[in-house]
Amino acid sequence: MPDVILETRDLTKEFKGFTAVNQVSLQVQRGHIHALIGPNGAGKTTCFNLLTKFLAPSAGRILFNGTDITALKPAQIARMGIIRSFQISAVFPHLTVLENVRIGLQRALGTSFYFWRSEKTLNRLNDRAMALLAEVDLEQFADTITADLPYGRKRALEIATTLGMEPELMLLDEPTQGMGHEDVHRVTALIKKVASGRTILMVEHNMNVVSGICDRISVLQRGAVLAEGSYADVSRNPQVIEAYMGSADNNLAGAHG
Ligand SMILES: Nc1ncnc2c1ncn2[C@@H]1O[C@H](COP(=O)(O)OP(=O)(O)OP(=O)(O)O)[C@@H](O)[C@H]1O
């Protein structure tokens, strides 16, 4: 197995003449938690959407374990083990937490309705779903209606559903967005835990999260990679500091406190 699990070569996305992602070449190491950061409008979301195949690149290539996946569709890369964390809108709010994880598993297995309705299959799926809930510390919420879950716990459910698809590479889009301090702490610890034996690439604004758990960080600015390295390295880089100072999103400094 190569050490680099995901690589982009000169990845570029233009929107009607505007270059949102400009010749980005990334290398994500196997086993790492890798963050994509940058001030507002830097191109993080666009880059993420290219990697998850929600957008087609204007130029450049994407390789997963050395295989060119540039032309593949989201479902095809999911089968290869690249799983994007599902937004919570993808779950059924009126079903229980356990039922949602079970449905996620059933989808991943691709089993037919009649097959998974059999009691034996259902019990097996229930056992696996409970194990996944235990992994994200949601066991005590198994019978809770999903709509009633506290916000931070919904992200944990999202991660459990993602784990059910047995990701080799997990892609997380701002996993702590909109959370209070306590939830940020819990979800950060959870990401660290589930990263064991996997690789995680995430877009994240919260520098406390990035500095706490990420092995490597790529900083984007105006669509291009400005700097790359450990948090200690990039947070000291004068160009990175300047990029954040010149932006309304100057929370890079906040992480030092
Ligand atoms: N569909 C689109 N059509 C035209 N321009 C777009 C489109 N999507 C993004 N852009 C532009 O590309 C640039 C990068 O946007 P993107 O959302 O990728 O940045 P970001 O780093 O994720 O920002 P934020 O931190 O604010 O979410 C922005 O100037 C944005 O206006």
Task: Explain what the structure shows.
The protein is of the alpha/beta class and 257 residues long. 38% of the residues lie in helices and 23% in strands. The protein has ten helices and eleven strands. The protein has helices at 44-51, 74-80, 97-109, 113-117, 119-135, 151-163, 181-194, 207-213, 231-236, 238-245; strands spanning 4-15, 18-24, 27-29, 33-37, 59-64, 67-68, 82-84, 169-173, 199-203, 216-221, 224-229. The strands form two sheets. The chain has a six-stranded mixed β-sheet, sandwiched between helices. Strands 1, 2, 3, 5 and 6 form a five-stranded antiparallel β-sheet that branches. α3 (97-109) packs parallel to α6 (151-163), α5 crosses α6 (151-163) and α6 (151-163) packs parallel to α7 (181-194). The protein is globular, with a radius of gyration of 19 Å. One of its GO terms (molecular function) is ATP binding. It comes from Telluria mixta. This is ABC transporter ATP-binding protein.
